[in-house]
């Protein structure tokens, strides 16, 4: 054994303690750290021919790279839809690395049994029936991709072929209908060989991002045979929700596949105040939910559900004697694109076991309250304009005057050390989004964000370019 490996193995308890202390110090500083630190990126160095052991690597990381890391796990990182990591999820993730399991096969099955229990807990959390079976994947993009791959096989079944066996060329043209599909849907269609042009945007309701059911029905009447409907349970700009029951009725009437993208909107099911938004979620043929968003587990983790596990296994089966069973209960290796992956279910198992439905409902309700408070402040603040009602956990707003992309970028830059927001375009207008999904965010954090907004808007030049 290499001497540095041998030395690190002998000193592993002490080195892990040093790592724990470094991690704890980083986490303890999140509340006051710059949300997006300013400063130059370290110059890259060549690979060392001779390493100097873990202790030196920890010190080098702390000196060169850690100071530039954002506080994305902290309470005022409101960009994208980014959760933090609950204490239980962090413990689960550390144990995941320690155990280093690739539990995709019944030949070494404990990990996949744990994942099945975890998926069952998630099914209960979101109010789904036992007809939905699921597996964990890396994120919402992969969850949407898996769901649409199953939909592709269903379309082939309707036409008497199997795209998994015969290729997508045998399928012919495909239409995927949606009102405001997330960009990952087009990416998935490209990856699946269906093509981005298969996505047909259907008109939405006036002033909404929710699809107009009457317009969708007209598109279905015009379609040449079965097609796929992609419904939204929480759009990224305004957290708008399609009428899931109305879309399921159209699915039944026109013999379509209903995929619901509920990446973070599914968590509305946890809150008595918002559960009506996801009425009909269980009617999906396939369903996407992201876990490293509002469940607050580490990247990368999401879950996909479907009613057609048989079609899923037909798409993803990997026939090899050493890979395990493809029977009534297929091994995980036959259900997703990956043959190998870490036991990503463990962090989710830990946070669900530690805090239960009640604890995670509290996170959802506090985030929704924070969004409502910020939305009300934006609506009342001279110089800002709220672009949509705050339905759940996202505040979408713009400058009331001269709202160019450049000026909004300058506003976001001015805020960056105190709060991180991401740019968007809503109804043709450049805007900013604040997405509340972190378990650490408090009412005090919201007030700090409001104060920072007031100051930044006041100091923003009246008009003209503000960024070089």
Going by CATH, the architecture of the domain at 90-350 would be: 3-Layer(aba) Sandwich
Spell out the helices and strands N to C: HHHHHEHHEHEHEHEEEHHEEHEEH
What's the mean pLDDT score?
95
Structural class: alpha/beta
What is the helix tally? 14
Bulk shape: globular
Structural key phrases:
Aspartate Aminotransferase, domain 2, 7-stranded mixed β-sheet, 11 strands, 14 helices, 468 residues, alpha/beta, 4-stranded antiparallel β-sheet
Brief summary of the model shown:
With 468 residues, this protein is of the alpha/beta class.
Structure write-up:
With 468 residues, the chain is α/β, with parallel strands linked by helices. It has a domain at 90-350: Type I PLP-dependent aspartate aminotransferase-like (Major domain) (Aspartate Aminotransferase, domain 2, 3-Layer(aba) Sandwich), CATH 3.40.640.10. 41% of the residues lie in helices and 11% in strands. A hairpin with a 2-residue loop joins strand 10 (422-426) and strand 11. Helix 2 (12-28) runs parallel beside helix 3 (54-64) and helix 6 (140-158) crosses helix 11.
